[in-house]
Design a protein that fits this description.
The chain is an alpha/beta fold and 118 residues long. It contains five helices and four strands. Strand 3, helix 5 and strand 4 form a beta-alpha-beta unit. Helix 1 crosses helix 3 and helix 4 runs parallel beside helix 5. InterPro entries: BMP_lipoprotein, PnrA-like.
Length: 118
């Protein structure tokens, strides 16, 4: 879990600075989509824990932690990613190798949104 927190922290630090979030400028919305459930006592739990730790430093930035896709169903992933986009997410983390194809499609159609996949 420490590795997941470290990696997530480095990636977010390289994309955004705390000063920008606190300066009164538009708040950054960060969302996460996982393949499966958040409390799997494995990788998804670690990613969820990292995002919750990040929320301590940037409480207004974490808009939602999202996990409703039917595991392995491509159209469900694309639909969920579109919902996150419509909800104003600026950075969307995707957790799980099954999200690769959906992330490539959606990220090429939405260059204004930052995507990360683990």
């Amino acid at each position: 879990m420490k590795i997941a927190i470290f990696i997530l922290g480095i990636l977010l630090t390289s994309c955004f600075s705390k000063h920008e979030v606190e300066s009164g400028s538009r708040k950054i919305k960060i969302s996460m989509l996982v393949d499966g459930v958040l409390d799997d006592k494995s990788f998804n739990s670690s990613a969820n824990g990292a995002l919750l730790c990040l929320k301590k430093d940037f409480p207004e930035s974490i808009e939602k932690i999202f996990s409703s896709a039917v595991s392995g169903v491509y159209s469900s992933y694309v639909s969920d990613l579109d919902n996150l986009k419509r909800n104003g997410s600026d950075l969307i983390w995707l957790v799980g190798y099954r999200l690769t194809d959906a992330s490539l499609l959606v990220s090429s159609e939405n260059p204004e949104i930052s995507y990360g996949i683990i």
